[in-house]
Amino acid sequence: METPDNATLTGIAAQDWATASAVPQYRAAVIDLLGALAYGELAAFERLAEDAKLAPSLADKAELAKMASAEFHHFEQLRDRLAAVDAEPTTAMEPFAKALDDFHRQTAPSDWLEGLVKAYVGDSIASDFYREVAARLDADTRALVLSVLDDTGHGNFAVEKVRAAIDADPRVGGRLALWARRLMGEALSQAQRVVAERDALSTMLVGGVDGMAAGFDLAEVGRMFSRITEAHTKRMAALGLAA
Hints:
The chain is mostly helical. Helix content is 75%, strand content 0%.
């Protein structure tokens, strides 16, 4: 998914945090965003550590452990940033804990391959969503968000393992395709729920602070989710699965 070209940025997106955070509603939106991201990274760390128990080999277990460590490092960056802007990290994360916990409970993988597909598909949908939000952020916050969304290496690892499993037994592909479609639906519902429940975040998402007085641009929200869906279709193809 494309990131903004700095030369074309205007409004809040062209400002630094010190300037942009003078607007209370924008500051509240960023704290919401960082809180949601921080809890998401903490949950990803926990999930990858749990998924490592399903790994069929020591090499696979070690690979997931390395990825879990990277997710925890991302969590630490976000936690430290929240503290630096005088927001209590636990308080910032708390509003998003239930929605994310519900998502992970409803999409608990039953085996190693489902866990890989979930990490690749589910996490990528969330990352695409947050990258869309990042385009509306001040320069300092945008740089942090894009940094913690860096691929931990799970993408290539998942593609390699899933494609090998399908080559060995083509019947696996049908089951995993159904699983990925379910993940897509659940992930989009969760993203929409997060936006709908936090007024400052939803207002910033649909128009940025510059557009807050103008009201919600529902058409742009629709285009955003269309872009996320298109990126998901490409990832399914990379896995060798039908979208």
